[in-house]
């Protein structure tokens, strides 16, 4: 099975070229001197300079960052609670509705989620701005967190928790000392996912916000609608760079972590078998 | 007590910010334009019975009368369907090659597939504008190699929308198929070949059926979000490409017709329920098969 045919090599090469070339081109052309985005006129970093002196973009970036940090943190807490409830909570009133509400936002078109939240915010007379975007983002990203965390909770060895309870730990202590450290990588990736989703969201934020708050995607959107602009290329390259380094660091950390967990579990298994 | 709080907090959050908003959308879809402009609350404050006694299907009738909406729904379905097929055709060979790659490459290949998903969706779609436009890189490249003598119009057509959807959603197709192919027992194919099956035949008779779960999951993961897509048709499709997500957005922000926008949303939701239920069935069946 581990033999790549020429056809496999071709599909991999073309596949990854297709995935990465457009972004590579974007990054290359962000260093283009010319305002015309498709004509190469020499190397220059002037668009980065213009970007950094553009207050509207910086303000939007700040709003976006604020929203992303707050909403992903709340979403991580709520999503972990929801995951724990779904996997360990047993039966309770309205469990089916609850799990439905966790999974539905994952497949819901953004336009519908956004529209419904806007109608709610107007209905209760809430001033729209940073606060309402945070509420909107928390709501859909907690569902993603909960899916990530519950898949980890479902696979881990429950006897560890039970052992802690048998040895006199309270359920909360057992959660804090046993469960949480084990599911921590999933919680962290849940937070990262929520953070990225929030950074990335255009549609729901456009519905949920008012004139007082503009997020970066909304700002990008309004300039991109007028066509390609070298400043947006520069901004995109910065974002691509940040994400790429973030993901690479995170995957290195999680790889090390999973190797350690495996070693520990193997050691524990050996102990049990003796 | 702790258990109660643990359940109640996320539960109430979702009730207030997910379920209640949907009830409002349904309610507004069924109310008069005059009542549904911002002070639509009075009609809701009259209580539930008053709310339901005033139901009005006018907005839905309006949707059936104006053929813009029919065309938008049909064209969304068509675009979502064609792009799903294209994504499958391009995604399957990649997933297949990944599953055949040496073990030590696989984690890296997986990461390379997931990585674009972490970068901004908007930026990934935007990247294609510079490539597909009439003076864009693709045209210049084709002109340079002599394949064309006049620039192709790709941007602002449905072709650009297909490219955009395939590009942004292909990881969703590759991952479930790869997961299914990776589990596939290679000895089954060897057995088939030993018994005289050609490689091609073994592929059709064994590999494809055994990766069916992944194919179905991938198709739904592309089709469902593509149906309500807004960013891709707006940036790449131009004014000629009708998709319902775009119509809804414009109905709401440009025409400010909230009841009609809500009715559009309700129907989109009803259309989506079928593939969503089928998708969940497929997932359950796969889980049962594993367990």
Brief account:
Chain A has 274 residues and is mainly alpha-helical.
Descriptive tags:
heterodimer, A: 274 residues, mainly alpha, MetI-like fold, B: 291 residues, 16 helices, 0% strand
Write the layout of secondary structure elements.
The complex is a heterodimer of chains A (274) and B (291).
Chain A (H helix, E strand, L loop, with lengths): L5 H24 L16 H7 L2 H34 L6 H13 L2 H14 L6 H26 L2 H9 L4 H30 L2 H6 L7 H9 L5 H44 L1
Chain B lengths: L1 H28 L3 H4 L4 H5 L2 H6 L4 H8 L1 H34 L2 H16 L2 H12 L4 H8 L13 H26 L2 H9 L4 H12 L1 H16 L3 H6 L7 H10 L4 H33 L1
Helix pairs in contact in B: 1-16, 5-16, 6-10, 6-13, 7-10, 8-10, 10-13, 11-12, 13-16, 15-16
Structure characterization notes:
The complex is a heterodimer of chains A (274) and B (291). By secondary structure, chain A is an all-alpha fold. Chain A has helices spanning 6-29, 46-52, 55-88, 95-107, 110-123, 130-155, 158-166, 171-200, 203-208, 216-224, 230-273. In chain A, α2 (46-52) packs across α11 (230-273). The longest helix of chain A is centred in the C-terminal third of the chain and has 44 residues, at 230-273. The radius of gyration of chain A is 23 Å and the shape is globular. The model of chain A has no long low-confidence stretch (mean pLDDT 88). The two termini of chain B are 34 Å apart. Chain B is built from 16 helices and no strands. Chain B has helices spanning 2-29, 33-36, 41-45, 48-53, 58-65, 67-100, 103-118, 121-132, 137-144, 158-183, 186-194, 199-210, 212-227, 231-236, 244-253, 258-290. With 291 residues, chain B is mainly alpha-helical. Chain B has two domains: 1-56, no CATH class; 66-290, MetI-like (MetI-like fold, Orthogonal Bundle), CATH 1.10.3720.
SSE order of chain B in H/E notation? Answer: HHHHHHHHHHHHHHHH
Can you tell me the CATH superfamily of the domain at 57-233 in chain A?
MetI-like
Largest interface chains and counts: A-B, 83 and 89 residues
What share of the residues of chain B does DSSP label as strand, in percent? Answer: under 5%
Count of alpha and pi helical runs of chain B: 16
Number of strands of chain A: 0
Assigned CATH architecture of the largest domain in chain B: Orthogonal Bundle
Tell me the structural class of chain A: mainly alpha
Give the overall shape of chain B: globular
CATH superfamily of the largest domain in chain B: MetI-like
